[in-house]
């Protein structure tokens, strides 16, 4: 890392401003600013840590800053002053950066900005107090609740219960491990990568700075896929030699999973840049699938398939562990919009299923409207389909992942002792043979 760490902090500041002011997704902001700054790997890792952890702990940090600055300066006058304070406080309280380094760097950042420079004395004074008192104040905060916006907290308490909502929120405070799905030889790769072997040939690594530096990456021995994300495709059962249509397929985890299981996969994706990424992933892993660039609502295969998997676009509230910006970028209105779109996609997917065939509908969302309510409304509209209950064998005997209705329902707090998992909902919908 550079001696001052200033290039990394400048990049992190640009990322935070993009996310908090322009409502840009964190991943896109990181990709742009880390690339344009031409940081070395250590600086890039530091910038990523600052931006990600500031957003992961945004509610706490915002409350902490308000403790010392009850009336923050107006953004149009102060420029990035608030972001400098948030990032500086994050370094001091959660990243354990030495006080002199974090405070000095924040002063330098303020000095470089035409607006923030006028608030440099405020930045200096506040962060010195944070250095002295911040950790003790943070220790007394209700971390899970503060880092969960009201709109999500109320929904989760209603959908689940307050204890479960708190468990979900607590799981979001921990940066997620890295999960890899392995084509073959899972135990050998677990030993080689010093990883924990989970069911379904999924390996779990505690941390990894660069995925492409791991053994097996260039050989295509594995791909990145959260354990929970590996479950919906498993609900299809034995697909060896069978034709499977994978809808909304990119970035390709499920496509690769199905291809590795011996299926003849047709992967449908409408976004050309996402389809290009899917092609790259298939090429690296030496797996094959027929790839079609199309809005699935315009996709009409020559014949219906026995297996169709629809991993529908959604608010992705089940992936907050990996996307800590998401709670602050989305709102309840996005849930409504997502539910409306998913309904249309699900109706079209139904027409692609052959009589007697199986449709698996999945979303990486914790919201009822995007999950169980979608399925119940679908079954009311399509009496030729019936829910088929998820069996313990479908989930490697983990009964806790099966909802009372018989669907798959994973939560971030499941497997908490091992690092949790993404939140997914999936249902098996069998078409009648008539």
Task: Describe it.
With 434 residues, this protein is α/β, with parallel strands linked by helices. It folds into two domains: 6-141, N-utilizing Substance Protein B Homolog, Chain A (Orthogonal Bundle), CATH 1.10.940; 178-431, Vaccinia Virus protein VP39 (Rossmann fold, 3-Layer(aba) Sandwich), CATH 3.40.50.150. Helix content is 45%, strand content 15%. It is built from 18 helices and twelve strands. It has helices at residues 6-22, 26-36, 41-56, 58-68, 75-78, 81-93, 99-112, 120-139, 143-146, 150-159, 162-171, 186-193, 231-234, 253-260, 272-285, 326-329, 332-350, 372-381, and strands at 178-182, 196-198, 202-205, 222-224, 243-247, 264-269, 290-293, 305-311, 353-363, 385-388, 408-410, 424-431. The strands form two sheets. Strands 5, 6, 7, 8, 9, 10, 11 and 12 form an eight-stranded mixed β-sheet that branches. A four-stranded antiparallel β-sheet has the order 2-3-1-4, with helices on both faces. Helix 14 links the parallel strand 5 (243-247) and strand 6. Helix 6 (81-93) runs antiparallel to helix 7. The longest helix has 20 residues, at 120-139. It is globular.
């Amino acid at each position: 890392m550079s001696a001052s760490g200033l290039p990394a902090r400048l990049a992190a500041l640009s990322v935070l401003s993009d996310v908090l002011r322009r409502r840009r997704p964190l991943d896109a902001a990181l990709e742009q600013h880390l690339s344009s700054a031409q940081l070395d790997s250590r600086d890039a890792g530091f910038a990523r840590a600052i931006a990600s952890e500031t957003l992961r702990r945004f509610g706490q940090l915002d409350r902490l800053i308000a403790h010392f600055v009850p009336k923050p300066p107006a953004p149009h006058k102060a420029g990035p002053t608030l972001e400098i304070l948030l990032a500086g406080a994050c370094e001091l309280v959660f990243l354990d950066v030495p006080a002199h380094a974090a405070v000095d760097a924040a002063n330098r950042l303020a000095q470089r900005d035409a607006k923030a420079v006028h608030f440099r004395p405020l930045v200096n004074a506040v962060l010195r107090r944070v250095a002295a008192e911040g950790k003790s104040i943070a220790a007394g905060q209700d971390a899970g609740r503060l880092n969960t916006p009201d709109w999500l907290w109320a929904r989760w308490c209603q959908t689940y219960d307050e204890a479960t909502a708190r468990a979900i929120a607590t799981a979001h405070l921990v940066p997620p491990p890295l999960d890899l799905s392995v084509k073959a030889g899972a135990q050998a790769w677990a030993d080689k990568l010093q990883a924990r072997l989970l069911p379904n040939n999924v390996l779990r690594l505690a941390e990894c700075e660069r995925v492409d530096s791991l053994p097996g990456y260039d050989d295509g021995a594995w791909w990145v896929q959260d354990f929970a994300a590996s479950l919906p495709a498993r609900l299809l059962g034995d697909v060896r030699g069978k034709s499977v249509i994978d809808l909304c397929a990119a970035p390709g985890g499920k496509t690769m999973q199905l291809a590795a299981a011996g299926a003849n996969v047709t992967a449908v994706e409408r976004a050309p840049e996402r389809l290009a990424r899917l092609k790259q992933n298939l090429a690296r892993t030496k797996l094959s699938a027929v790839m079609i660039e199309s809005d699935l609502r315009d996709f009409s295969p020559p014949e219906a398939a026995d297996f169709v998997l629809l991993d529908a676009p959604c608010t992705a509230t089940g992936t907050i562990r990996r996307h800590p910006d998401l709670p602050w970028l989305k709102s309840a209105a996005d849930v409504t919009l997502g539910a409306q779109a998913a309904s249309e996609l699900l109706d079209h997917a139904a027409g692609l299923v052959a009589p007697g065939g199986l449709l698996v509908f999945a979303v990486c969302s914790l919201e009822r409207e995007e999950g169980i309510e979608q399925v119940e409304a679908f079954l009311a509209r399509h009496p030729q389909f019936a829910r088929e209950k998820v069996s313990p064998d479908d989930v490697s005997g983990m009964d806790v992942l099966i909802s009372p209705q018989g669907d798959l329902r994973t939560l971030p707090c499941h497997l908490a002792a091992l690092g949790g998992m993404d939140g997914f909902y999936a249902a098996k919908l069998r078409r009648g043979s008539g």
